[in-house]
Automatic annotation (TrEMBL):
Keywords: Isomerase. SUPFAM superfamilies: Xylose isomerase-like. This is Sugar phosphate isomerase/epimerase. Pfam families: AP_endonuc_2 (PF01261). The lineage of its organism: Bacteria, Pseudomonadati, Bacteroidota, Cytophagia, Cytophagales.
Length: 275
C-alpha cells in the first residue's frame, strides 16, 4: 500500500495543480452596457447580477455616479441583488466632495479618473500627478480613495520617458492607486504582468478585456474574453501576488453580439476560469 501511495503521489499533485481555485468575485464596468443603463439602470443591474457579477464599477452617464438614485435607494438595490458597488469613473476635478459623499454612502472604495488625455511634455505629466495627489487628499477625508485608469497614451514614450512611469513615481501611494486597463497596456506593447510587478501594491483594480491578433488599429482589437491573445488565468493569478484586488470586465467592441450578451458571456468565462 505504501508503494502504491508513493507511486500515485505525483499524479495527485498533478490533479491538485489542475484544480486551481475559481475567481470568487469579479465585476463589470457599467459603461459596457451604457445604453441599457440609460434606459433602465436598476433593471439592468438586476440582470447583470443574474449573470454572476458580484461587483459593479460605475460611470457618470449624465445622471451622476448613482444614475439618479438616492444613496439609500441605490444601497437597498445593491443589497437586494447581492452586488458591491466598488468604484465609479467620474469627473474627479468637479464637485469632488459631493461625489465622494455619495460614493461613501453606498460603500464605494474608489472614485477613478477615467481619462486625462495625452500631455505634451514631462513637466505637464508631473502637473497631472500633482492634481491626482490633491484629488486623493480630498477623497481621503471621505474615506474613499482615488485611482487613475490608463489608456494607451500613457504607454507611449515621451522625451525618453514613459508617462505611466511619471505618474507612478510622482504620486503618493497613500493617496493614489491605479486601475490598469490590461488591454490598453497590451496593445501598446507592454506585458501587463511585468508592469504590475514593477510597482507592487500600486495597482488595486484592473480592467479585464481581451485583444485579438495585432491589427492596424489598436482601438479595434477588443474581443470577448477567452477569444483573444491574453492569458487571463495566468494574469489574474499572478497579479494577485502584487496586490491586485478587483477584476472588472469592460467590453467596448461588439462583433457578432450585443452588450448584454457580451456581458453574460464574459461572466460565464470568468466564472469557469481556474486561477
Amino acid at each position: 500500500m505504501l508503494g502504491l501511495g508513493a507511486a500515485l503521489f505525483p499524479y495527485e499533485l498533478a490533479a491538485r495543480s489542475l484544480d486551481r481555485a475559481k475567481l470568487s468575485k469579479f465585476g463589470l464596468q457599467l459603461y459596457s452596457v451604457k445604453e441599457e443603463m440609460a434606459k433602465d439602470a436598476a433593471g439592468t443591474m438586476r440582470k447583470l447580477a443574474g449573470f454572476g457579477y458580484k461587483q459593479f464599477e460605475g460611470f457618470d452617464g449624465g445622471k451622476g455616479i448613482l444614475w439618479g438614485m438616492q444613496p439609500a435607494e441605490c444601497k437597498s438595490l445593491l443589497s437586494e441583488i447581492g452586488v458591491d458597488f466598488i468604484s465609479s469613473h467620474a469627473n474627479v476635478f468637479k464637485d469632488l466632495d459631493a461625489q465622494a459623499e455619495q460614493a461613501a454612502a453606498v460603500g464605494m472604495k474608489y472614485l477613478i479618473c477615467p481619462y486625462i488625455g495625452a500631455q505634451k511634455s514631462v513637466d505637464e505629466w508631473k502637473k497631472v500627478a500633482d492634481k491626482f495627489n490633491a484629488a486623493g487628499e480630498t477623497l481621503k477625508s471621505h474615506g474613499v480613495k482615488f485611482a487613475y485608469h490608463n489608456h494607451d497614451y500613457t504607454f507611449k514614450m515621451l522625451d525618453g520617458q514613459l508617462p505611466q512611469d511619471i505618474l507612478m513615481e510622482n504620486t503618493d501611494a497613500d493617496l493614489v492607486d491605479f486601475e490598469l486597463d490590461m488591454y490598453w497596456a497590451f496593445v501598446a506593447g507592454y506585458d501587463p504582468l511585468e508592469y504590475i510587478a514593477r510597482f507592487p501594491g500600486r495597482f488595486k483594480l484592473c480592467h479585464v478585456k481581451d485583444a485579438e491578433a495585432a491589427g492596424s488599429n489598436a482601438h479595434d482589437r477588443g474581443v470577448l474574453l477567452g477569444s483573444g491573445e491574453m492569458a487571463y488565468a495566468d494574469i489574474i493569478k499572478k497579479s494577485k501576488k502584487y496586490g491586485m484586488k478587483y477584476f472588472v470586465v469592460e467590453q467596448e467592441r461588439f462583433v457578432g453580439t450585443n452588450p448584454m450578451e457580451a456581458a453574460e458571456k464574459n461572466a460565464a468565462y470568468l466564472a469557469k476560469l481556474k486561477v
